[in-house]
Design a protein that fits this description.
about 600 residues, alpha/beta, Rossmann fold, 2 domains, four-stranded antiparallel beta sheet, about 25% helix, binds calcium ion
């Protein structure tokens, strides 16, 4: 009780001092002094104003007892002491008025924040400090530096596990550099606030690190056994009931091509990287922690149909669906149109006409379409992009490792747009590489149980990083077109590091995703000009809309359930140890990445 009472007294004394001393500050500094409340300094202009003011701020500490300051009346006596100190300063240079010092506030009886009466250049400030340090009563004087508040989330796995969001550095060349971007992008609210990102995937779990971000979505799986939700029809429940393949499943005709696997919680993983709640002292931070997530469920057990995926994409942007057979309940028009569509999925072959048409239509609605390039077995020579990454206008994302090397599993070609963290080992096998990406999941091996955090790697999760950054950019400037977002992402991409596969092989697109560089590029180019030859036509695979995957009925293309080699995951579960989940890819088919 004693300690509490004492602390309260100190707190109230400091508050009183601050108010009292504030009245002494020059008028021009009042506004600036109101700014540096860590966590809510939204405006860059305000930052700059305050930064300019720092050229007037010093810390001055008097020698103990030297100033004659009465500790019981520090504000008043400190003001006098600073005034005396100001009078003792040598005369200014010819033509320059002598600098006057004013007490701004006291930190202790001896240590004071002091303001000069005018802004000083760095050399003038240095000269003043040297003069003050020669004063017999001064113990030290130094600049009161502006320390920029940098949003480092308090989410416990951020420091220890989220290399993928951290600034690049030795051994972490692949980091997507979020802290600086968050600082610029955050306003009164979290970065990406208000931007809707559709996660067209397996549905989502209401993970505690995600639930506040969730919008009501929709389940578009039209096949009952794939849906695994006791409901053959589309419905408004987009939660993920699990997509496991049991021994019994694998013995059925429908799932005969699918390997045994526990539930993947794939959509939840993607959503976590895109927009997990940041700063809630829980788990991880997402790329755009203010964005809202629209779950569009199109994959269940062993994948799903292209037709369902495309339907989900149309619904996600608010388009009205065409009239349906009586057996299908038409969903209401989505009241939360997505500005970003995350397609962490892949099918072999060139871009189908139906997928290209979907991409064209949703882009016309202003939505950015982001897709994974695909995870192919590293023994295969063909690293061509999967669809829909090879569709015209799609931002095609390949994956790099912690060290910035191209991930061994990642499809990439000259038509890749850029690369983002995907984890795993790289082609060049750089030292200390191989770290995976930590995201959200569920502990259930079949049906959902409790929230968990999962280790994942793949071009899937790489695409989720790009979707997150797209949302962050749209949060800053909502009127950006999809092509403008592409320009920002590619122009600001960071060069691949030395010794990486992509440094010497031009098959990885513009470079590595760099969030801070992107937001600063946008600040410098608030209306990016889209060159005619870069308006989303740099995809070679889909050129002209493809024509459909050879031999596959366009609207009945089964995207077989696969967690390809690079998309395996390990769980953080005490006692269970890491395990890998996977489903082999039948030749010529594809699915979630
Ligand atoms: Ca259903
Ligand atoms: Ca969190």
């Amino acid at each position: 009780m004693q300690a509490i009472a004492t602390n309260r007294r100190i707190a109230s004394c400091l508050l009183a001092l601050t108010i009292q001393a504030g009245a002494l500050a020059p008028a021009g500094l009042q506004a600036a002094e109101a700014l540096p409340q860590a966590g809510n300094t939204p405006l860059l202009a305000a930052h700059q104003a305050f930064e300019a003011a720092t050229q007037r701020r010093l810390l001055v500490k008097f020698k103990p007892g030297a100033s004659g300051i009465d500790a019981t009346l520090p504000a008043r006596t400190a003001q006098l002491a600073i005034s005396d100190l100001s009078q003792r300063l040598p005369s200014g240079a010819p033509g320059r008025p002598q600098v006057q010092l004013v007490l701004q506030r006291s930190i202790s009886a001896q240590l004071h924040v002091v303001l000069t009466d005018r802004g000083l250049s760095p050399s003038e400030m240095q000269q003043l400090i040297e003069q003050l340090q020669r004063d017999p009563l001064v113990e030290y004087a130094e600049i009161d530096p502006r320390i920029k508040p940098q949003l480092i989330p308090n989410d416990p796995l951020y420091d220890s596990r989220q290399w993928n969001l951290q600034p690049p550095g030795p051994g972490r060349e692949g980091g997507a550099n979020l802290p600086g971007a968050w600082d610029v992008a955050r306003g009164e609210v979290a970065p990406g606030q208000g931007v809707v990102v559709a996660v067209v995937d397996t549905g989502l779990r209401p993970h505690a690190d995600l639930a506040p971000r969730l919008l009501p979505g929709y389940d578009f799986i039209s096949d009952a056994s794939i849906a695994n939700d006791l409901d053959a029809q589309w419905d408004s429940d987009a939660s993920d009931p699990g997509d496991w393949i049991s021994v019994r499943d694998s013995e059925t005709a429908e799932f005969s091509g699918c390997a045994l696997s526990p539930s993947s919680w794939h959509g939840t993983m993607m959503a976590g990287t895109i927009a997990a709640v940041a700063g809630n002292s829980l788990g991880i931070a997402g790329m755009a922690p203010g964005a809202r997530l629209l779950p569009v469920r199109v994959f269940g057990k062993c994948g799903g149909y292209l037709s369902d995926a495309i339907t989900g994409v149309y619904w996600a942007v608010g388009l009205e669906l065409p009239s349906l057979p009586d057996s299908m309940r038409a969903p209401p028009v989505n009241p939360y149109p997505a500005r970003v569509i995350n397609l962490s999925m892949a099918a072999a072959g060139s871009c189908s006409a139906a997928f290209q048409e979907a991409v064209d239509r949703v882009q016309a609605q202003g939505a950015v379409v982001v897709a994974a390039t695909g995870n192919q077995d590293d023994t295969q020579a063909d690293k061509a992009l999967s669809q829909p990454a090879n569709c015209r206008g799609v931002i095609a994302v390949t994956a790099h490792t912690r060290r910035g090397d191209l991930a061994y599993y990642a499809n990439s070609s000259a038509s890749t747009t850029l690369s983002a963290p995907g984890g795993g080992f790289g082609i060049n096998q750089l030292a200390n590489d191989g770290d995976s990406i930590t995201s959200l999941g569920n502990s259930g091996l079949t049906s959902p149980l409790s929230d968990s955090y999962e280790e994942v790697r793949g071009t899937s999760i790489a695409a989720a990083h790009v979707s997150g950054l797209a949302a962050l950019l749209l949060g800053m400037q909502p009127n950006l077109s999809p092509d403008q977002v592409r320009i920002i992402l590619t122009r600001s991409a960071r060069a691949y590091p030395a010794n990486s596969h992509c440094q010497t092989n031009a098959v990885c697109g513009a470079g590595m995703l760099d969030a801070e560089a992107a937001v600063r590029w946008l600040q410098a180019n608030p209306a990016p000009v889209v060159p005619p030859d870069n308006s989303g036509t740099d995809q070679t695979g889909g050129g002209g809309g493809g024509g459909g995957a050879a031999g596959w009925p366009e609207w009945l293309l089964l995207l077989s359930a696969v967690l390809l080699s690079g998309a395996t995951r390990r769980r953080h579960q005490p006692g269970s140890g890491p395990h890998q989940a996977g489903c082999q890819q039948p030749t010529g088919q594809a699915g979630r990445m």
